[in-house]
Structure formats: structure tokens, C-alpha cells
Amino acid sequence: MDTAEIRRRFLAHFEAAGHAVVPSASTLADDPNLLFVNAGMVPFKPYFLGQETPPFDRATSVQKCIRTPDIEDVGKTTRHATFFEMCGNFSFGDYFKEGAIQLAWDLITKPVADGGYALDKDRLYPSVLVGDDEAIALWMKVTGLPRERIVQLGPKENYWSMGVPGPGGPCSEILFDRGPDFGPDFDAATLGPDMPVELEDRLLEIWNLVFMQDDLSAVRSKSDFDIAGSLPKKNIDTGMGLDRVALLLQGKKNMYEIDIVHPVIARAEQLTGKTYGADRTNADDIRFSVVADHVRSAMMLIGDGVTPGNDGRGYVLRRLLRRAVRSMRLLGCEDRVLPELMPVSRDAMSPTYPNLVTDWERIAQVAFAEEDAFRKTLQTGEQVALRVVESAQVTKMVTAQDAFTMHDTYGYPIDLTLEMAAEHGLQVDQQGFIDLMAEQRDRAKADARSKKGTHGDTAVYRGIFDTHGPTEWLAYETLETESR
Ligand code: ATP
Ligand code: MG
Ligand code: MG
Ligand code: MG
């Protein structure tokens, strides 16, 4: 089933069940606490928080999402992209737990002829928050599955909050067993409270149902919070990964091979003369996946109006474009690559997002100019990079000063230095680098240079950290932003 059809069926299923179909919002969040929309619920937040009255009790959408914190996983797991589409259904004080479970289960198990996805019931595993007996009972009632098939996971997986006082609630993640090729055997009844890492690709999470029911008075961490009482209006917020369901229904090993992503890999194979082999531990296969993922994310961001820059969203875009270009170089292609790759991604995505065609000239111009600028950076930086690697051979550590000079004088971003160092089996004195950056920032402040606008303060990043955990990559992003 192609992705377009999976998307269509999702909306049709929920529309038939009385949901208003709401088009995707931009990936650029209209929210001071977020750089990007990272879930389907984000555009509906004012309704969930009771700040605005929704014009409907039920809604459904397929929302464009960007998750920069997942960047390090791209290509290494089978299931993480920096851009993906989240299918969601939402209830604003209307149906609750039972309705949400029933609607989701119907869609994924319904025969194809009846508009469903016909996933094999014997391979589906609902998960609930440890001790959520109400949810366990409802899953058993709706699905007829025995109690042993329901996995109980801790709050890290199965409790949702915004990281601040306000609404919160237990989740139910629906998992699909992809079989022994993807991880060891397991016993659902004794799994948890943490999901073992080696099972995450096998027990693929496809859908998260959030039961917004609690009023939180304090949130200290994902698993440490105080429930003050129940919300007056209980809400449902769900997110099904479109690309993940496509992976299953198209019989692919990973998300980078689905119909709307793989054509870029195929083009990259032609350009590099190398063959992609879907091995998640093979450096080249990871690079092919990174190329396909980042080219798409970058294109979607430019389509939504982002331009490359040195902070906030612009910096994220710059990093995606540069990483894609550099991965192609490491695969052996030193020519300009974006004019070859991005049109392929456009053709895969434009049936759903026609702006990619109508706005193509601008999108292409922004992307290709950034590649040209980066090629110049690489030309000047490469010799210096080699000298840095040379001088780090004894200690196996790139000094903070070298990393800083690369960044400051040669425009060689820290992530590139980190990647390059890792390729040569070297560490980087990251703390020292952070300190030097901080010193530079303080100098800049002392100089009272006029400030450029940023896309928010550190609370922005704090929110992302709290939701997704820190990554080195984001840590530097924060640094960059703070330094301006
Ligand atoms: P995971 O544990 O696999 O990282 P998650 O729990 O972070 O997923 P949710 O925040 O629950 O994901 O998002 C809802 C759904 O969106 C997930 O069930 C999944 O199907 C999909 N999804 C989440 N992150 C990604 C991603 N990086 N790429 C593609 N799909 C994703
Ligand atoms: Mg999860
Ligand atoms: Mg989840
Ligand atoms: Mg995640």
C-alpha cells in the first residue's frame, strides 16, 4: 500500500467517525517553546490547554513533523527520521480511553477491502503505563487479547506531560512485532518497566495514544511528577507514524526504503557508484539513509520558509544540508549533489505537498546556494582538518583550541569536527570547546555588540531537551544560539 493511500485511509476512517479533517500546519511552530512542530497535537495545544474553545469536539490530521533530537538515530535505527508525518486523532472532552482504543484498533486490523491496514493481530502488542488497570481492561475488552499480551512500561515510555505543570496523562503505545530478524525473542508479560534497547527495532512502535486526564502541579522529570487531581475535561491526543506504518505495509526493512524516501537513495547509488545494502551497522548504508532523510527534511523546511543561518531554525537547516552533502562526499561523490538529489525528493513528496512544485525555483535556489558555500568551506578547511587530525594522533584527542579555531576561523562547524574525529578514532575536548565558545560569547557581550534576533531563549531548547533528552548536536545548537 503506498504512503498516499495509508494517509488517505487514516483521514477517511476518522472522518467517518465524526472527526473534522484539519490540514497540516507548517513545520514552523507558532509556539514560543518550540522551534519546530514535533507532534500532531502542537497546532491544537491552545484547545488542550483550555486557552481557546475548539470549533469541533473531534479532529484528525496528518501533520508534518521535524524532530532534530532524533538526528543521531537516522540510519542507525530502522525507524527514526528528522522529517516525518504524524497521523493523529484528537478528542477535546469528547470520547476518551475506550473510544481511542477502539478507533485505533479498528483501523489497523480492519481488512484492506474495508479501508483498513489489516495488520496481523497476532503480532500486535498494546502497551500501557505500569499499573494502568483501566487501560489493560479496555484493551482486553476491545481486542479480545489476553492480559499476557499487554506490555506494561514505565513513565519514560508511557507517561506524557509537557514538562511543566498542566495537563498530563498515561499513554498506550501500540507495538508491532517484526520478528526475529529485528531483535531477540521476548515475553510480553514480563517486559518492562523499561523497553530493552535491543527490542526497539523488533517491537516497532507505530502509534501512541495519550489519555490526557491528570492535572499536574509539578514536573521534575519524566518519571517524577505530582498529580494534583483530574482534569475537568479529559482529552485524547494520538500520533501514528505514517512512515512507520508504510514500512510495515510495504514490507520494507526500514523507513528509508519506503516509496516516498527510497528514490533518493536510488539516485545516490547512481551518483556514487556504490550499492546500498540496508545494514544498520554499515557506515555507507547509514550515510545513504542520512542523505535521503536530510535532503527531504531540508527541502520541507525551505518549503515552509526557513533559510540557512547561524542560529535557531536556520542553523538546523544548514546542518541538515551540510550533513547530506558531506555524507555524499564520504560515499565518494565530490560533485554538486543537491541539484541531482533534491528534485527526486520533490517528485516523491509533491503529490501531497504541491507547494514543492509551485515554489520550486526558490527552494532550489536556497538549497543549491548553501551547497556551493559549503563546498568553499570544505575546500579551505580540509587541509587544516588534516593537520588537526595529524597533531591529535598521540593523545587521540582534538584539542579545544583546534576545534574552536576550525569553527571560528575556518567556518568548520563543530559537528563536522566531531564526525571527522570519530572517523579517525579520535575524541574531541568538547567541554573545552564549550568553554571557549562561552568565553567568546562573554567577549561579544562585553563589546556590547548589537543583538540579532533569535528564535527564543534557552527555554525553547529546555523544552526540547525535556521532551527528547539532550543530544550533543542540540547542545551545540543551543550554544550557537546563546552566543548571539
Ligand atoms: P520512539 O520511541 O520510537 O522514538 P516516540 O515515543 O518518541 O517514538 P511519539 O512521541 O510517541 O514517538 O510520537 C508518536 C508516533 O510518531 C510514534 O509512535 C511513531 O510512530 C512516530 N514517530 C516518532 N518519532 C519518529 C521519527 N523520528 N521518525 C518517524 N516516526 C516517528
Ligand atoms: Mg516511544
Ligand atoms: Mg511514543
Ligand atoms: Mg522518540
Task: Briefly say what this structure is.
The chain is of the alpha/beta class. Helix content is 44%, strand content 18%. The strands form two sheets. Strands 1, 2, 3, 4, 5, 6, 7, 8 and 9 form a nine-stranded mixed sheet that branches. A two-stranded parallel ribbon has the order 10-11.
Secondary-structure map:
Elements: H1 3-16, E1 20-21, H2 45-48, E2 58-66, E3 83-92, H3 97-109, E4 124-129, H4 133-143, E5 151-153, H5 155-158, E6 159-161, E7 166-177, E8 203-221, E9 224-241, H6 242-249, H7 262-272, H8 283-303, H9 312-330, H10 338-349, H11 355-358, H12 360-391, E10 397-398, H13 400-410, H14 414-423, E11 427-428, H15 430-446, H16 458-468, H17 472-482
Parallel strand pairs: 1-2, 4-5, 10-11
Antiparallel strand pairs: 2-3, 3-9, 4-7, 6-7, 7-8, 8-9
Helix pairs in contact: 3-4, 7-8, 7-10, 8-9, 8-10, 8-12, 9-12, 10-12, 12-13, 13-15, 15-17
This protein binds adenosine-5'-triphosphate (ATP) and magnesium ion (3 copies).
One magnesium ion (MG) is lined by residues 173, 205, 208.
Keywords: Aminoacyl-tRNA synthetase, ATP-binding, Cytoplasm, Ligase, Metal-binding, Nucleotide-binding, Protein biosynthesis, RNA-binding, tRNA-binding, Zinc
Protein name: Alanine--tRNA ligase
GO biological process, one term: alanyl-tRNA aminoacylation
